[in-house]
Specification:
The protein is mainly α and 228 residues long. Helix content is 73%, strand content 0%. It is built from 10 helices and no strands. α3 (59-67) crosses α6. The protein is globular.
Length: 228
């Protein structure tokens, strides 16, 4: 339960501050500011809850860790449930906050930081671009996570390396999909926004899981593992 609580809080924080930076402060900080908001939220949680749960705060990361042989199936299920609930709770609190704006907040036009693709969404990239980006970006993200936390890696620097990787991923990918690489991060806003955000949610579940699974296999097979 302690690990589940940690994963819930971590995912809650990532969604609240990451998506919140886009919805509330996006016009002021721009894409670069949003990128750093996601990355720094992850860095903070890595050092805050990392010693307890490993700070996955992402079902795709947990899948990669599972496939790499570093966690049990029971823990995986517990983590994913906690992460999804945390993502929904984070989006829910963000919705409560933006709903208090005196001029109002229209989810249909302003959204809640949801992911997507196609006409009318940010850079208006197609589905194939979105799919390729999410698979590749998640693969590289999980490679950094598994590599920086393996035996022999400088453990104290892992959180910083992982957070900065998420920053870079956002800098490149915000205009493509808004950047998911995390099914729980996509689920939370989609639950409240509905419509296209929900109909496109499948890609932000499937693509990150595929990328993470490949990374997990690369470490389980010792292809990228430091130890023999």
């Amino acid at each position: 339960m302690n690990k589940a609580c940690a994963e819930f809080i971590g995912t809650f924080t990532l969604v609240l501050f990451g998506c919140g930076s886009a919805v509330i402060a996006g016009d002021f900080v721009g894409g670069l500011g949003i990128s750093f908001a996601f990355g720094l939220a992850l860095v903070a949680m890595a050092y805050g809850i990392g010693p307890l749960s490993g700070c996955h705060i992402n079902p795709a990361v947990s899948l990669g860790v599972l496939i790499a042989g570093r966690m049990s199936t029971g823990d995986f299920v517990t983590y994913v449930i906690a992460q999804c609930l945390g993502g929904i709770a984070g989006a829910g609190v963000l919705y409560l906050i933006v709903s208090g704006k005196l001029a109002g907040h229209d989810l249909g036009t302003s959204g809640l930081g949801q992911n997507g693709w196609g006409a009318g969404y940010l850079g208006e990239y197609g589905m194939m671009s979105a799919l390729v980006f999410e698979v590749v970006a998640t693969f590289l993200f999980v490679v950094v996570i598994l590599g920086s936390t393996q035996n022999g890696a400088p453990a104290m620097l892992a959180g910083l390396a992982i957070g900065l990787t998420l920053v870079v991923i956002h800098i490149v990918g915000i205009q493509v999909t808004g950047v998911s690489v995390n099914p729980a991060r996509s689920l939370g806003p989609a639950v409240f926004v509905g419509g296209q955000a929900l109909s496109q949610l499948w890609l932000f579940i499937v693509a990150p899981c595929v990328g993470a699974a490949v990374a997990g296999i690369a470490f389980r097979s010792k292809l990228l593992a430091a130890e023999a």
